[in-house]
Amino acid sequence: MARNTTSGVSAAAGRRWQAIDPLLPAPSVPPGCGARLVVTAAGNQPVAVGRCEHWEGAPDSLELSWGAARRFQLAAAIPVPDVADALDRLLSLWRDHLARVPGTDGDDTAAMVTWPSRDIDAVPAFQRHGLVPVEVIAARGAGRGAAGRPSRAESGAGYSQPTAGQAGNGLRIRRAMPADIDVVARLGLEVIRFDAHFGKVIERPGTAAAMRREAGRLLAGPQAWTWLAERDDVVVGMVSAERPESAGWIAPMVRAAPVAYLELMYTLPHERGTGIGAALVAALHRDIDAASAAVTLLHYEQINPLSAPFWSQQEYRPLWTTWEARPARGIR
Ligand SMILES: CC(C)(COP(=O)(O)OP(=O)(O)OC[C@H]1O[C@@H](n2cnc3c(N)ncnc32)[C@H](O)[C@@H]1OP(=O)(O)O)[C@@H](O)C(=O)NCCC(=O)NCCS
Q1: Cβ–ligand 1 contact at 313 (below 6 Å)
Q2: For residue 184, what is the DSSP state?
C-alpha cells in the first residue's frame, strides 16, 4: 500500500479516536515484522490497516515479568465508523498470519492488542476472536480528573484526601532514599506476586534480581519519586514513579505531555483499607504536580479487585485496555 494511503488511514482513524477520547494520541502503525495486514472495502478502499510486532524479552529484564516471554502485538488503524466489522476482518487476517509464524503455539506466548478503552464498539470483535481483557493503562490529568472534570478534592464534593494522620497512629509518610533499596525491591516483588494471580504477570527465576536493579534505578538521584509509609519505623507501604525524563517509553500512549509513570504501589495486607495508599499517592501527586507533568499513567490488571476502585478514587480512569490470547495461536 502506498505510504500516503497509510497516512490517510491513520489520519482518519485519529479523528475517530479524538472524538472518543481526547487523551488518545494519533494512531501509529509501526513497520512491525513486515507482515502487512490490510482489509479493504468496495473500490479497494482500506477500512483497516494493521502490523504485527514480534517481541521477545531479554532473560534478565524486568519487563519479562509483566507478561509472556514472546509477544505478538497488533497495531491497527481503522478509519471507518463500522469498527466492529473492519476489526473483525483484520483480526481474522492476523490469526491466519500467527498460524504461519513458528512458535506461536508455545505456552509462554501471547497475541496482544492494546486498544482505546472507550472504543466500546470494538469489544465484540475481540471477544469473537477469543481475546480477553487483561490489563488497563489508566490516566490522571494534572490537578484535575483525567476526563477534564475538576477533581473531587477541588470541587469540594465531600471528598477529602486521607492523610497519614487519618491512616492511624504511628504512621509516617517519607521520601525513600538509596539506602531503602532492600524494602523497595521486596515490596516491588510483592506487587508482581499479587498481580500474578490475574493471568498476565509471571514471577520468573530472574524477577527478584531484576526488581532489585529496578529499585536501584528508581532510587537513584536526589528526591526520588518513591514514598514509603512507616508504622513504628517498619515500612508498611510504598509507591514509586518515573519522572517524565524516564517515562519517555510510555509517553506516546497519550496526547498530553510531559508524562509521568506510576510504576509500583503496595500496602501490606493487614494495613490495607485504612488510607495508607491514599496518603502515599497524595505525597507522590504533590511531586508530580510540582513538576508540571500533564498526565500520569499507570498499568493495572483488569481483574485485580483492589486496583480499579482504588485508582478511580485517586482520579485515574481507563485509557487503554490490553486484550490477549495465550498462547498466541489461541486467537480464534
Ligand atoms: C491497591 C492498594 C495499594 C491500596 O492500598 P491501601 O493502603 O489499602 O489504600 P487505601 O486504604 O487508601 O484505600 C483502599 C480502600 O480503603 C478505603 N479507605 C481509605 N481510607 C480509609 C479509612 N480511613 N478508613 C476505612 N477505609 C478507608 C478506601 O476508600 C478504599 O476503599 P475502596 O477501594 O473500597 O474504595 C492495596 O490494596 C494493595 O497493596 N494491593 C495489592 C497490590 C496492588 O494491587 N497494587 C496495585 C497494583 S496496580
Answers
A1: yes
A2: H
User: From ligand 1's centre to the CA of 110, what distance in Å?
Assistant: 31
Q: What is the pTM of this model?
A: 0.92
Give the type of residue at 101: V
**Residue range 80-129, pLDDT digits in tens:** 999 999 999 999 999 999 999 999 999 999 999 999 999 999 999 999 99
> Measured from the CB, is residue 191 less than 6 Å from ligand 1?
yes
CA distance 84 to 72: 21
309 lines ligand 1 (CB under 6 A): yes
267 CB under 6 A from ligand 1?
yes
DSSP string spanning 302-315?
Answer: TT-TTHHHHHHHTT
- Using alpha carbons, select from 239, 279, 287, 244 the residue that is nearest to residue 263: 239
Residue 183 CA to residue 218 CA, distance in Å, equals 12
Question: Is the Cβ–Cβ distance between 173 and 164 less than 8 Å?
Answer: yes
Pairwise CA distance, residues 254 & 155, whole Å: 25
Q: Sheet holding 295-301: strands in order across?
A: 36-40, 46-56, 70-77, 109-116, 317-325, 132-141, 295-301, 259-267, 234-242, 226-231, 171-175
Neighbouring CB atoms inside 10 A of 44's CB total 9
Ligand 1 centroid – CA 166 distance (Å)? 13
